[in-house]
Automatic annotation (TrEMBL):
The modification N6-(pyridoxal phosphate)lysine is found at K599. Keywords: Allosteric enzyme, Carbohydrate metabolism, Glycosyltransferase, Pyridoxal phosphate, Transferase. GO terms for molecular function: glycogen phosphorylase activity; pyridoxal phosphate binding. This is glycogen phosphorylase. It is an enzyme of class 2 (transferase). It comes from Baekduia soli. PANTHER family: GLYCOGEN PHOSPHORYLASE. One of its GO terms (biological process) is carbohydrate metabolic process.
């Protein structure tokens, strides 16, 4: 494990422990290693200290231990059974952190603009962060030497509330790093370790926080330092803000600052893995006398994962903006700015072509991958012009299909059931199809009982939140009150939760309002939970939410259709664990992969999805339902067709099967678990990355394709 900052974490642990009864020292130590959150007993342990306080402080264990009333701490200190559980978890976490390959092995450095490690660390917005969080957790579990680099956004991503007209409103909350499980990395002299990054006309000083995610340290860069200008200090405050100047500053800090920070921390990575292009400027600041040398050096060790199958989704900026941003770096290093600009254009000679970070990343890495098989095809087409002398199939972009971190997303009851049937070490061997072979022997009634328990946990969350959400946006009392009676434990529960972008087509759910309302209240009823945030600048996305919420007047829907505001990873977990069917309706081929469906699979959820992203390689006719994945330029016709098919499947197959006492539903759950859980686990994904991208023996060769 990389040592830089470890002492600072230990100091923070002692500082916290000193405020607590002596018996609670192990809890302080657990609080500063996020691997508690995927330990089977971790969340329950903190909840047992003070359930109310645990909820009130957003499941942040450092805040819990600092803010819990003395009587809760004293009661915990006198609870021998609880202390024994804490001692056990602490010993396991410690043994794992300290065991395995030693710190002398040069790690993979993973760069990403966002990480969803846990709801209490709000430095993520959605799918990209969820993937990054899952990947570093898996690396921790597998003891793959890795350090992760990101930015500390003190205000995180925006929080969502909905007003009475159904319009999304955004607000931001400030996080105090002193109350988060992280420590400022300090040098021998006790002063914070800092690095300087020349950005436009300013040299921005950034400090570095360390977060422990099991064996993987996550270093978060933070520009909120007194010597910086107000603009610079604010530049790392919010994630994915609209202003292009701020975003470009963030990219420079993440890429150039991140690479310099690793140097200052004494880390010399064997591989630099850029997860999305945001950190691509890292390639411009390595060792070397000329830009060419520097790029050559980067190319020997950089691998790049692209996530964006839509040309407009790939960040690109006018040449002069980039020139202004990078001018001081070019001056400092003696590089020709025009040469830098050429690296970011698909056609280097086309001077008026915008500068794209994806192009820069593709040009400066030795291997690149898309995130599903179909996305690989799309990405090779999209970027073919960068390699004008190659056939499309020889474009050096392969694919590693996404996967999800099993112990993070599997619900408690399901985990216990699988522990019992697949053996105690099934999670370690989750990627091995043999692990799942005995699923077919799983008793149908037991499986249904576990599903019911997880559905009930979702319903409890809904009944608690929906009245509050509705009252907060000023709904009339009766409608708000109905939220407290929302959902029934034996009714088919359907989930649709994701970033609200137009291509995700949330509107298909209510394409034909009358028919949709008829299905919800039919003799075989259905209940629907929807959640998702639209980007603050995405008015069409906000209109979609508004349109959906306007269906609330229809009879019977007040308790059967709910919109859960402020989607985050905690809500996502409840939804994927509780829903029987998980719906995904992207407009093909715009879904790079999607991962929420994989989380649902682990919990016995069945997929109803367009054959795009991961589902295009996952669906086999027995393990879920599919809508066509064809590309159609006539979007209206496509929407009408897909909505009709969606309703038909619900009415004709899904509802009858769910309410049938025959075992068709259970058979499909078994098929889904058996065929999908191993393939779409982060264990398989990390093994693919290690084999196809990290292995230095593969230098300069394209990733092989299956
Ligand atoms: C898993 C997850 C996502 C990704 O879901 P998609 O299937 O890609 O839409 C987004 N947001 C949160 C909070 C998640 O947990």
């Amino acid at each position: 494990m990389v040592d830089a900052g470890r002492r600072d974490i230990e100091r923070a642990v002692s500082g916290l422990a000193a405020r607590l009864p002596a018996e609670l020292a192990p809890l302080a130590s657990i609080a500063y290693d996020y691997s508690w959150c995927w330990h089977a007993d971790g969340p329950a342990l903190f909840e047992a200290v003070d359930a109310e306080r645990w909820a009130a402080c957003g499941h942040n264990p450092v805040r819990l231990l600092r803010e819990a009333p003395q009587e809760s701490l004293d009661r915990t200190a006198a609870d021998d059974a609880l202390l024994a559980r804490a001692a056990d978890i602490d010993a396991r976490l410690r043994a794992h952190r300290e065991g395995g390959p030693d710190g002398a092995v040069d790690p993979v450095a993973y760069f990403c603009a966002e990480y969803a490690v846990h709801v209490s660390l709000p430095v993520y917005s959605g799918g990209l962060g969820a993937l990054a969080g899952d990947l570093i957790k898996e690396a921790a579990d597998r003891s793959l030497p890795m350090v992760a680099v990101g930015l500390l956004y003190r205000q995180g991503y925006f929080r969502q509330r909905i007003d009475l007209t159904g319009w999304q409103r955004e607000y931001w909350l400030e996080n105090d790093p002193a109350l988060l499980p992280m420590a400022l990395v300090r040098g021998e002299d006790g002063e914070p370790v800092t690095v300087s990054v020349p950005v436009r006309d300013e040299t921005i000083v950034v400090q570095i926080w360390r977060v422990d995610v099991g064996r993987v340290p996550l270093f978060l860069l933070d520009a909120d330092r007194p010597e910086n200008s107000a603009f610079a200090r604010f530049s790392t405050a919010q994630l994915y803000v609209g202003d292009p100047a701020v975003r470009l500053t963030q990219y420079a800090l993440l890429g150039i600052g991140g690479a310099r920070a690793l140097g200052a921390l004494g880390v010399d990575p064997v591989v630099v893995h850029l997860n999305e292009g945001h950190a691509a400027y890292a390639a411009l600041d390595g060792p070397g006398a000329t830009l060419q040398d520097v790029v050559e050096h980067a190319r020997r060790r950089t691998v790049f994962t692209t996530h964006t199958p839509v040309p407009a989704g790939n960040d690109a900026y006018a040449g002069p903006e980039i020139a202004e941003l990078l001018e001081p770096l070019a001056r400092e290093r003696g590089f020709d700015l025009d040469e830098i600009l050429r690296l970011g254009r698909t056609h280097p000679e086309a001077e008026h072509e915008p500068f794209g970070i994806t192009q820069l990343a593709l040009r400066t890495s030795r291997a690149a991958n898309a995130v599903s098989r179909r996305h690989g095809d799309v990405a090779r087409e999209m970027w073919a012009d960068i390699w004008p002398d190659r056939l499309t199939q020889d474009i050096p972009i392969g694919h590693v299909t996404n996967g999800v971190h099993v112990p993070t997303w599997v619900g408690g009851p399901m985990r216990a059931l699988l522990d019992e049937h697949l053996g105690p070490r099934w999670i370690e061997h989750a990627a091995d199809p043999a692990t799942w072979a005995s699923i077919d022997a799983l008793d149908g009634a037991e499986l249904r009982a576990v599903r019911r328990r997880q559905r009930e946990a979702l319903i409890a969350m809904i009944r608690e939140r929906i009245p509050r959400d509705r009252l907060a946006r000023g709904e009339e009392r009766g409608f708000a009150q109905a939220g407290a009676e929302a959902f029934e434990p034996d009714v088919l529960t359907i989930g649709f939760a994701r970033r609200v972008a137009t291509y995700k087509r949330m509107g298909l759910l209510v394409h034909d309002v009358e028919r949709a309302v008829g299905i919800v209240g039919g003799h075989q009823p259905l209940q629907l939970v929807v959640a998702g945030k639209a980007h603050p600048k995405d008015d069409p996305g906000k209109e979609l939410i508004q349109h959906l919420l306007h269906v609330r007047g229809a009879p019977g829907t007040a308790t059967r259709v709910v919109f859960v505001a402020d989607y985050d990873v905690a809500i996502a977990a409840k939804l994927v664990q509780g829903c029987d069917v998980w719906v995904n309706l992207p407009r093909p081929p715009m879904e790079a992969s999607g991962t929420s469906g994989m989380k649902s699979v682990l919990n016995g959820g069945l997929q109803l999805s367009v054959l795009d992203g991961w589902w295009a390689e996952a669906y086999d006719g027995t393990n879920g339902w599919a809508l066509p994945g064809d590309v159609d330029a006539d979007h209206q016709a496509q929407d009408a067709r897909d909505a009709a098919r969606l309703y038909e499947l619900l009415e004709g197959e899904i509802l009858p099967s769910f309410y049938d006492t025959e075992n068709g539903w259970v058979d499909m759950m078994r098929a889904s678990l058996r065929t999908l859980a191993p393939r779409f686990s982060a264990t398989r994904m990390l093994a693919d990355y290690a084999r196809l991208l990290y292995d230095p023996g593969r230098q300069a060769r394209p990733v092989s394709r299956r």
